[in-house]
Specification:
eight-stranded parallel beta barrel; binds pyridoxal-5'-phosphate; Methane Monooxygenase Hydroxylase, Chain G, domain 1; single chain
């Protein structure tokens, strides 16, 4: 058994909780637990102010921001930009690199207005730019870049309008770089330049042959959807030369995919890209920039391994490797080292938002021992009672063998099966079946207690799995399709844990079911230091206090990927900024979608919905099926409901 298993309820403390949920590993400098047993947030990192997350939620609820609630800590966003830039500054100093680093934020990671605007504001000291992957994102980028030094990397498929827009934006005073991703874009760029009599800054996205092991490994390699192969790159250079545009070729770009778990993948890609960069320079392109794309990963489970929910490198390792590898490539090659650009999205926005949801109720298997009736019980039930008694007798004897426990459990399962067969054939009443089930779970409960006492022996699988039988389902006021879509779509893991009661030992194991009617609407995979566990340690619900759970590190991709399955809309969102007087300010509030919003999104007309119901209730009044009072009550429910959010209210 692990340490937590042996810690009794009265010696449990917050550091046990911290290691149980891995908070001490994934929380970095931003999240920890205070002596009250609540999670605290340090939005500015180590030396900054702390906010008690539980208290903060209560205060936001007091401002009528009901759960589920997304809290965005703008200071964390600022700190992430600062951390990435500082890491590159240090690497450049360490290796005496002769170029500079300049980041761009890939808009697709989180396009919300308040997020991109906040990023642009806090990124100003580092000339943070933007990366657009579509025409709509280009519009956001064009309107939000005001720093003339900031870069605008134009990725994605490009038609004439996209190309012309970015050429004209250069004349507006911005620095858009059109990155050629498809071979046929070259001709369109040349044509547009001739027509406008103006040239764009040009980049090329290379299709590297380095293979990634990550989930998005297909983003590179010979079969990838994006980028130019080596022959296509050479052809492009030739076309640009003939069109007298080669002097505008400034940048080589590659992107190895998101959440790269293994730093070795980056190194291979950097070496290959470094060589292509040098060759392009030798072919006569001025170059100047190497854009290493995104992929900088997040250690979701804090295990520091190359497993899917982690990374085997730190931010500083990453920056060092980028700088050192490119430095080495250029050494003795008569090429000045390029200015380095990265397009980190996940690494900038993951930490700053925390999703808080409440638990509505729980379901558990009934494992209390049913009392014996006066009359005789049937043989199957008698057998189950005997099995239970024999397990409880183990408690008194000092030497219990694992095989005895194993045998007791196989017996109990056999009797349970017998009871089902008897019920199906009509030999057992529903009351007896219920007794049999309860006795089986009571056996499991007693067995768990005995198994926990066993030290230093290998516990067989079926006994390890006993907890699973007694696991509970916690019903969460949440739609995972809206708020954590990647848990469903690509089995991504996020740290999930209660944000309070962390002085108490969690006594139950459970998973979460969401509000949707979809059987996939569950959270049932949890971080486990490099592994995955199907159940999370959770507390017993209290009648008079809501149980609040936080999902952390979900600031990247979840919001835009989230969908309206079962018509659950956006949650309430609050932007928090620390203020000077040791307190905080709610900078922005974005109200949750109302039900009317969701109906309209599906082309329904909320007014018509209301009117149809009014007509129906009027008819019911006339036919004396419904009183005027009740009709009024029904209409009120509907009117108010249309205005309110799509989530449940306590
Ligand atoms: C998605 C994407 C990014 C962002 O990747 P992260 O792993 O989130 O940093 C950067 N560049 C391009 C071209 C992308 O498609």
């Amino acid at each position: 058994m692990n340490k937590e298993g042996l810690t009794s309820e009265d010696t449990w403390n917050v550091s046990h909780s911290s290691s149980l949920y891995g908070l001490n590993r994934w929380g970095e400098k931003y999240f920890s637990i205070n002596s009250l047993g609540n999670i605290v947030v340090k939005p500015k990192g180590e030396n900054g102010e702390t906010l008690d997350l539980f208290e903060l939620v209560k205060e936001l609820e007091g401002r009528n921001l009901k759960l589920p609630l997304l809290i965005r800590f703008d200071d964390i966003l600022e700190d992430r930009i600062k951390s990435i830039n500082t890491a590159f500054e240090q690497a450049i100093k360490k290796y005496k690199y002769e170029g500079i680093y300049q980041g761009v934020y890939p808009v697709k990671c989180n396009q919300q207005q308040q997020v991109v605007e906040t990023l642009m504001k806090y990124g100003r000291p580092w000339n943070l730019g933007l990366e657009a992957g579509s025409k709509a994102e280009l519009l956001i980028a064009l309107s939000l870049i005001s720093d003339p030094k900031a870069l605008l990397i134009c990725n994605g498929y490009k038609d004439k309008r996209y190309i012309e827009t970015s050429i004209l934006a250069r004349q507006l005073g911005q620095q858009p770089i059109l990155v050629i991703e498809q071979a046929d874009e070259v001709e369109r760029i040349i044509k547009a330049s001739k027509e406008l009599g103006a040239a764009p800054l040009i980049g090329i996205r290379g299709k590297l042959s380095t293979q990634s092991n990550g989930k998005w490994g297909e983003s590179i390699g010979d079969k990838s959807k994006f980028g130019l192969s080596i022959p296509e790159i050479l052809q492009t250079v030739e076309s640009l030369k003939q069109a007298n545009l080669l002097h505008e070729l400034r940048l080589l770009h590659f992107h190895v995919g998101s959440q790269i778990n293994d730093i070795a993948i980056f190194k291979d890609a950097l070496q290959e890209a470094g060589q292509i960069y040098i060759e392009l320079n030798k072919l006569g392109a001025p170059m100047g920039y190497l854009d290493v794309g995104g992929g900088l990963g997040i250690d979701y489970d804090g295990s520091q391994t190359s497993t899917a929910a982690s990374t085997n490198y730190s931010l500083q390792n990453y920056a060092n490797d980028v700088v050192a590898t490119i430095q080495e490539c250029c050494l003795g090659r008569d090429v000045s080292p390029p200015n380095l650009i990265s397009e980190s999205g996940r690494a900038i926005t993951s930490h700053f938002s925390v999703l808080i949801f409440n638990i509505l109720s729980e379901s558990k298997v009934p494992s209390n021992v049913p009392s014996k009736p006066d009359s005789q019980e049937c043989l199957i039930i008698k057998n189950l009672r005997e099995t239970l008694n024999s397990i409880n007798d183990f408690s008194d004897s000092s030497k219990v063998k694992i095989t005895q426990l194993q045998e007791a459990w196989t017996d109990a399962l056999k009797f349970k099966e017998d009871s089902l067969a008897a019920f199906r054939l009509g030999y057992m009443s529903i009351l007896e079946r219920s007794t049999a089930e309860q006795l089986t779970w009571a056996c499991a409960k007693s067995l768990i207690r005995e198994v926990e006492k066993i030290n230093g022996q290998i516990i067989p699988k079926e006994l390890q799995g006993l907890n699973y039988y007694l696991a509970r389902t916690y019903y969460a006021n949440l739609s995972i399709f809206r708020s954590a879509p990647d848990t469903w779509a690509i089995n991504q893991l996020f740290p999930i844990m209660p944000i309070h009661r962390l002085r108490e030992k969690p006594t139950n194991l459970g998973d979460f079911a969401d509000l949707t009617c979809d059987s996939d609407g569950k959270l049932s995979s949890f971080i486990n230091n490099g592994q995955v566990k199907p159940l999370l340690e959770l507390h017993e619900l209290k009648a008079d206090e809501s149980y609040l759970i936080g999902m952390f590190l979900g600031g990247a991709y979840q919001e835009v990927m989230g969908n309206s399955h079962n018509l659950f809309g956006s949650t309430n969102t609050a932007h928090i900024r620390l203020s000077n007087e040791r307190s905080y300010k709610v900078n922005h509030v974005i109200r949750a979608d109302s039900k009317a919003d969701l109906l309209e999104a599906m082309e329904h007309n909320p007014k018509l919905v209301l009117e149809r119901l009014r007509i129906a209730s009027e008819l019911a009044i006339q036919e004396r099926r419904l009183s005027i009072n009740d009709a009024q009550r029904l209409m009120e429910h509907i009117e108010i409901s249309l205005r309110e959010s799509t989530y449940l209210q306590e």
